[in-house]
Design goal:
With about 190 residues, this protein is an alpha/beta fold. Strands 1, 2, 3, 4, 5 and 6 form a 6-stranded mixed sheet that branches. Strands 7-8 form a two-stranded antiparallel sheet. The protein is globular, with a radius of gyration of 17 Å. It has one domain (about 10-180): Rossmann fold (3-Layer(aba) Sandwich). The relative contact order is 0.21. It has helices at about 20-35, 70-80, 80-85, 110, 115-125, 145-150, 155-160, 170-180; strands spanning about 10-15, 40-45, 55-65, 65-70, 90-95, 130, 135, 165.
Amino acid sequence: MEVERGTPMKVLVAYASRHGATAGIAERIAAGLGAAGLAAEARSISEYFDPAPYDAFVIGGATYMAHVMKDVTAFIKSHEVLLSERPVWLFSSGPLGTDRVDAEGHDVLESARPKEFEKLSGLVHTRGEQVFFGAWDPDAPPGGLAERLMKLVPAAKDALPAGDFRDWDAVDAWAAEIAAALGGVR
């Protein structure tokens, strides 16, 4: 896509968030892109808006039980042609805790990659993906079936670590990588 010289690229950081942790990551990415000279804004996928005016996209959502929120998949599929013509990055948030390696020796962030990312990446030819640690407040109102079921089983509530595990340095570093790839102001 041709962008007029001297005009910053317009980047949309579109997100689906159930409790706000993923929204916070999206806002931080948009702020990092803005600091690098890009015209970036974070918007919830649940809002109706026309994505056509944007030059590039960073799209992400909360992940539950190895699946990214359905709004992410729906957004990408409904704008597949537009997105396949422009730079796109995908992100998700969800694993809880701070340990990068699980008891079996697997990278937690790699294992938490949403199952849908394989197909979505192929549809729009993403330039990159990132999984970030998330946050969980066991006292927050449940947002989905799995969360409602967890509220019914007291032992399940204690199985997940509560807290905010978002790694802001990792988010900032990824935003800087995207900004570098887009070249900042043109």
